[in-house]
Each structure stands twice: as structure tokens, then as C-alpha cells.
Amino acid sequence: MSRESTLVGRTRARPGAFGFLTDTTLCIGCKACEVACKQWNQLPMDDFGFTGMSYDNTGDLGATTWRHVAFIERVADREGRRPTRLQPFQSNWLMLSDVCKHCVNAGCMEACPTGAIIRTEFDTVVIQQDICNGCGYCVPACPFGVPALSPLDGKAHKCTLCYDRLKDGLEPACSKACPTDAIQFGPVHALMDRAKARVAELRAQGVEAQIYGDEALGGTGGIGGLNAFFILTAPPEVYNLPAAPELPQRRVLPAFLTTALAALALGLATLVTFWRSKEVRHD
Amino acid sequence: MTEILRWQHRRAPGEPVSAETRDSYYGLPVIHGPHWRWSIVFYFVLGGLAGGSAVLAAAARLVGGHWARPIVRAGRYLAFLAVLPGPLLLIIDLGRPERFHHMLRVVKLRSPMSLGVWGLIGFTATAFLNALQQAAEDGWLGQRNPAAHFLRRLPARILAAASTLPAFFLAGYTGVLLGATAVPLWARNALRLGPLFLCSALSSAAAMLALLVGRGPGNARARHALERVEQVALLGELVLLEAVQRGSGPVVGRPLSNGLEGWAYAGTRLSAGVALGLHIVTKMLPRRLRPPLRLVASLVALGDAFLLRAAMMFGGRRSAEDPAATFAITRRPEDPARQAR
């Protein structure tokens, strides 16, 4: 068995962690999750625009968009062949309701210099709005492009996995609103078992399904898995998801070491230069 | 404040949508880029200048003789003056500037920005003490003033040695900070940015100090020593600039080779080369031609430090918007598209 296959379906999520399983094969692109999220979290409307490329006029996750349904119209496959028949559970649309992944090891949280980003008792990642000072470091530190600074209040925002609802024993607004149960909420390990069974079932029907958010795909490079994970039927890049992202903070220690080495070399060079400096007779 | 994102999609005219959807989501960015702009670029330049001059002042104090006193004097003042605008530049960049002190709630060893805040405070403290002692020695605080007397009695060598660690840190951590993000250009060069910024910090500080030390006959030896350090640092910078370009590859390195950022990067390499070349050529020229050429070389080296930070900052912003660059560093090893690259 290859190293790759032992990582499939494996997550380092702590016992008792809660998360989402977003099964794209069940998504009908109704955007109820987007609306429910906006309603519950009282998020202001986005800049209305027409992207002109698909049914997706939301475009991206942002400071005021914490669920985003991506629409991919399959015009042709990678070889340019046009689809002639439908696979089970597949139209020629791919739809994915994207959300903060609530990484097991979260880049945004490790980057945050104020401690505003915390891990809650549900093992979700939340930005404390009374602490955030809008430094913006979490924004490029996220390998998935989730947090964003709001031009309205200058602070960073992202999905809280409805922390307030979880506190009251309610499931998050998006999964509650999802009419097809494409978004499922629950304990991560139970959801992962369900995802594995679902992928096996889909594969038996000839669908190229895979889990995005285990340690083999999506939760790679020290991230340790995603508490909000997905079932995909196309390469992650098609959904604008990186296949093998890395926890950016893994590079901190090596980078400091090379910098220290350079400092040592430059310091020695300076000392030697000054030490060996000779009297200058003429300029 | 970030501006509201308006959609741009980069389908080339006449290209079908499918050409884009094949390998990305309609060519939209995968990650969010940073909002940092000019204030951070200026902070990077000034932080490098401050750190570099503190290092040079300390080295001059530790191993230089009487001839090196002009370096110590100018270096200690410059280190403090150059770092002073730093906190201001950082605070005005915050989305909520009035909350700047929230940075002081925690120390996080894996967050270069958190470490940077503490490093900046540590550096400012040592630079302040060094500058204060220099002012006391220069008689700016009065001769009979007991505080000035106390400052003059502080062990100068220990003060110098104590300032070197925070000085190197301030000059180099900004590169580590950029490397610890998902921005493709920075992530790919995470190991090179710290050393690159250090080299540039030292060359710009040496150039600035050479200008400040001036042309006086008593300062020739000090200026020569500074110019030699500047040349070593410029050489290191040139090597690292080449390594960054090569290591980035054609896709991630796109902002380094075309567009405005590409011009800035080319300008960085050119100015580093020109400054180094001028210093070398000057030695072979008639004596009366040397001072103006040296002046030009030092000014070019200072411009180089600025161009480098601007090119890396805005180049990084551009690479964050390029889905091909993000996918180039996040494809799985067995993906044929990664092997092809």
C-alpha cells in the first residue's frame, strides 16, 4: 500500500471536533446556504456585479461572504471532448458550496499576531472581533483564500461555523438551510466515516469521487486535515481548491535558520573588513 | 482599507471559457493577497537601513580603532532615526489603528509578525540607548549633567554587542514574514528572502553611512571600510536575486520577468550591479573623478534597497492573483502538470 493511500480518509482532527461535510454530488446550486449565512450572521450585501462567466455572481469567499457556491459548467473535459451522456449523480454542472475549512492546524490562526484568532471548544477557528486590529496577516497566510479584511470596519472576517448557534446546541445556518443535505454538520470523525462510505458508493457507480480535506488531499503539508471537508468529482483545481497546500508556518523555522546563517556570514565579513582595514594614504 | 473587489476575469479575447475552466476556476485567484502597500515597503526599507547601520556601528565599535569613530557615531544616530517612523508606518497600515496595542497581548514564536513586533521594540530600545550614549559623548546633553555622565560611563562595547542581535533580526525577519504566507512568489522563496533582505539592509546602510561620514580627509579609512562592506553585501544580493529568479520558475516568477513589477525587479538587479561595478571601476580611475562616482554608487545602492522591497511586495501581490502560480506550488507531486513544469 502506498503512503498516499494510507492517508486517504485520515484526519488529525481532535476527538470531539465539529465540522462540515459538503457533498458536491448532492448540491443543486440553490444558494440557500449563502442566503442563510447572510441572514443569520447579518452580513451586508456584496457589491452586486455580473461576472459574465457562469451562474456564479458571488465569485469568491470574502469578508461578507462566508459561503460561496461555485458553478462549473463542464463544456469539455481536459482533452476537449464534449460530454455526450450523464454519469450518475452528475449533471454537466459541478457545484460546490465553499466555506472556511476550519483547518486542524490553521495558517490564519498561527499567523495572527494579536491572538484574535482562536480555536473554540468545538475545534473550529474563530476571529474574535473585539481583538482583531486589521493587520491583515491572516489574509495571505490562508492557503485557501478564506479570511478577508472588510472595507466597512477594517477587521478580518470569515466563517465562524456559527459559533453562537453551536453554543445554543443548534446546527450552523447553512447546513440547516441546505434542502438536499449536501452540507452536513456533525462530529468530524463521524462525518469522515460517512464520507468514505459515500465515496465508495459513488465509485461503485463509476463516479470519480474523492475526499478533499483528509491528509492525502487538501489537508496536506502539516495542515493535518480540514474540519470542513468536501466530496469532489473533479480535480480540486477545477473548484479553485489547491490539491496539496502547505501550512505556511512550516517555513518559519527553516527561513529563520537561513536568515541567521546569512547574518552570521555578513557579520563576520563586516568584522573582518573592519579588522583588516588599513590606513588610507590618498582618497 | 481594502477596496471592494470587482470582478476581472482574464480570459484572453477570443478564448473560450473552457480554456480557463480546464485548469482553474475561470482564472479567478485561489488565495487572497495581502493588502500591504507603500507604507509597508517604506517600513521594510527603513527597518533594513536601521538594522544595517546598527550592525555596522556595533562592528566598528567592537573591532575598529579610533579611525572607525565616525562610523560608530553616524551609525548609532542613523539606526535610531531610521527606526523611529517604523511603528507609525505599521500602525497607519492597520485596519483599526487605534487597536495597535493588541499586538502586545501575546508572543507567538510561529508568527513572524508577532516576533517582529517584539523585535522592533527590542531594537528600538537598544538603538535608543546607543543613540543616547552617543549624544552624551558628543556633549549634546551637557557636560555636567549627571544623566549624561552616567550615560557616558555605560559600557559601550556591551551596548554595541547587545544591539547586534535585534539589529540583524529587524533587518531580516521581514523576509521570513513574507515567506510564511501562501503567496506563491514568497512561499517559493521563503528560504531566500531573509538573506536577501539582510544583504540589501547592509548594503543600503553602508552606502548611507558612507554618505554621512563624508569626504573629510580624516574619514577616508572609515569610508573605505564601509564601501568594502557595501560591495560584499551587494555581491551577496546579486547572487540571491539570481537565485530567486531561477528558483521561482517561469510561472511563479512571472511578476519578476514582466509588467511593472518585472521592471522593478530588473531595476533592482541592474542597480545592484551598477553600484557594485562603479565601486570597482572607481579604483582604476584618476583620483579627481572618484568622489562623484562613489557618491553616485552609494545613491544607486540606496535606490536599490527601495526597488527590491517594492518589487518583492508588489510582485507577491500579483502572484497571489494568479491561480496558475498558486497551483504551481500546490499541485500534488504525482500530478503530470507538476512534473511537466
UniProtKB/TrEMBL annotation, chain A:
Binds 4 [4Fe-4S] clusters per subunit. InterPro entries: 4Fe4S_Fe-S-bd, 4Fe4S_Fe_S_CS, FDH_Electron_Transfer_Unit, Formate_DH_Fe-S_su. Residues 18-48, 91-122, 123-152 form the 4Fe-4S ferredoxin-type domain. GO terms for biological process: cellular respiration; formate oxidation. It is found in: Cell envelope. [4Fe-4S] cluster 3 binds at C100, C103, C108, C142. [4Fe-4S] cluster 2 binds at C37, C159, C162, C174. One of its GO terms (cellular component) is cell envelope. Its main location: other. One of its GO terms (molecular function) is metal ion binding. This is 4Fe-4S dicluster domain-containing protein. It comes from Thermomicrobium roseum.
TrEMBL record, chain B:
Gene3D superfamilies: Formate dehydrogenase/DMSO reductase domain. This is Polysulfide reductase. PANTHER family: PROTEIN NRFD (PTHR34856:SF2). It is a multi-pass membrane protein. It is found in: Cell membrane. Keywords: Cell membrane, Membrane, Transmembrane, Transmembrane helix. GO terms for cellular component: plasma membrane. It comes from the Bacteria. Belongs to the NrfD family. Pfam families: NrfD (PF03916). It comes from Thermomicrobium roseum. Transmembrane segments: none annotated.
